[in-house]
């Protein structure tokens, strides 16, 4: 098969040639956009799932849908070492530009509020190099979104931006990837702002994406967050959607899979979108001709696993310290391949290591902060990457 025509795209956040299995989410979001633009009440949206299920890809697809409707959009990726002020200011700056409001004075005012919101982080006595330089020429609007209380400031900021959108009968959507990495104060402020905006009817929504424990992070911040957001769990693809993700791009290039090959690919990938792209690329490059057969999948499997071992599993494993790696391997041993995400009790991990659970708390907490594991319920933990335990057992 010609590698130049290989249609598969195993990249972080890279849109696959066929976005299979996400029609329900895309259709539902179109309804949300229309309702919000017409002043109807709607909840903001939170996508949750493991690494490699396509949350970032879907987030970008939803943003594209909002852009097609004429909405103002901005996107940011949360980081545990960064406050929300500056990245959100940049995202809203872009959203205001996309709206194209016809009144320059009103736009100038809102851009000044964005600048004021961002510069409040540096403080009044900050040096010039410490101040935010977003490319906004408008003067900062003093006394608006600059109180220093992130909750008050965020409500004022989003209210002003939402007012611009309402003037045009459109809306503004802020897309936040890795939402679980927001600091506690920022999470609390974001929930409060969404609550206030939903009550005032302004056309502003937040679309977040994060790991499976994100709902718990939001709920711990504000109890009403369970009613504030619409939560959608993004999971691996079913057999039909997985087959379409492989077969449709191949058909565009005049190739096809036989039924046995599609079955073998599903068994190998488990329906996880990133794995499908990695296997699809390896099989295409190594298959001698079409139709692609189950034997071709068998031949290409070691190459696909090597690619995953380096680019998907290995890069995450390298971030762990020796003590943390012992903890990860103990999780894999405790699970014994029963669960694709290696969900185990913390007591079982301690039993494998022959230590008291309390003594392992530092390693567990560090792995949680690094996003390598998550806790879906008290006393249990799981890998954020599917089949990570299988990878660890193979390495051992």
UniProtKB/TrEMBL annotation:
Keywords: ATP-binding, Heme, Iron, Metal-binding, Nucleotide-binding. Pfam families: AAA_16 (PF13191). GO terms for molecular function: ATP binding; electron transfer activity; heme binding; metal ion binding. Residues 1-23 are annotated as: Disordered. It comes from the Bacteria. InterPro entries: AAA_16, Cyt_c-like_dom, P-loop_NTPase. Residues 166-317 form the Cytochrome c domain. This is ATP-binding protein. It comes from Nocardioides immobilis.
